[in-house]
Design goal:
single chain; alpha+beta; 2,3-Dihydroxybiphenyl 1,2-Dioxygenase, domain 1; 2 domains; eight-stranded mixed β-sheet; globular; Glyoxalase_6; Glyas_Bleomycin-R_OHBP_Dase; Anthracycline_SecMetBiosynth
Length: 253
């Protein structure tokens, strides 16, 4: 079963990359992830495991879609077709129509009114990541939105989010799915500094600075240097294929 019964909570993260083999080496060295490759009926899909438990997926970007190498977030749905219908009714666009993925579940991709793409997963046998908030596992998920006023009601109406403003100033406007220690994801007003809306994936680490150094040694790059914040020491990185992700660890480490 999934980790939470909160409607629309993040349930899975997935890497879309032109170099799955290189990604397996990079993330094994960085987070200690092992990799399991599915059969041809699933297109050679790779599942990353932390201590034997699934935490993320990886699929080949063969260049035919025009999509860039990237990390994606999936939100849980108990009816993917109904969720896609609600997305359209609330100003979203369909990127990938609902489809069955073997016995694992049903998926779709939509684009929210501000332009951020988001996966939808209706689980069957594959119930998402088995751990979150632990070192080497997904820790946080947020959408940086260039249209905050459109994004928040979209996620409320389409995914059933119960949102709670954390800050509402021009300098920092942020709302969360859930409240305080029970928060599961966030929406940030990025209109002052971003040209595009996008979801971000954070992975928990024991030492942010050591992880940054290891990423660079493994061929990755630093997009935003490690910095202490009220929620931990954060950094933004890109893997060798250019896929962007973030890490979060304790302050002072």
């Amino acid at each position: 079963m999934s980790l939470t019964t909160v409607p629309g909570a993040p349930i899975w993260i997935e890497l879309y990359t032109s170099d799955p083999a290189g990604a397996q080496r990079f993330y094994a060295d960085l987070f200690g992830w092992s990799a399991e490759t599915a059969g041809p009926e699933y297109g050679g899909y790779v599942t990353f495991h932390r201590a034997g438990e699934p935490v993320a997926g990886c699929m080949l970007n063969d260049g035919t879609t025009g999509g860039v190498n990237s990390w994606s977030v999936y939100l849980e749905s108990n009816d993917v077709e109904a969720t896609v219908g609600m997305a359209e009714a609330n100003g979203g666009q369909i990127e990938i129509e609902p489809m069955q993925v073997g016995t694992l579940g049903h998926m779709a991709f939509v684009i929210d009114p501000a332009g951020a793409r988001i996966g939808i997963w209706q689980p069957d046998s594959m119930t998402g990541f088995a751990v979150r908030g632990a070192v080497g596992a997904p820790g946080w998920f947020e959408v940086l939105s260039t249209d905050f006023a459109a994004a928040v009601p979209f996620y409320e109406n389409v995914f059933g989010w119960s949102t709670h403003p954390m800050s509402d100033t021009d300098e920092f406007r942020y709302t969360t799915l859930g409240k305080d220690d029970l928060a599961l994801a966030g929406v940030m007003d990025a209109s002052r500094f971003a040209s595009n809306s996008a979801w971000s994936v954070y992975v928990e680490v024991a030492d942010t600075d050591a992880t940054v150094a290891a990423a660079v040694a493994g061929g990755g790059s630093v997009l935003a240097a490690a910095e202490d914040t009220p929620v931990g020491r954060l950094a933004e990185l890109a893997d060798p294929s250019g896929a962007v992700f973030k890490v979060m660890g304790p302050t002072g480490a």
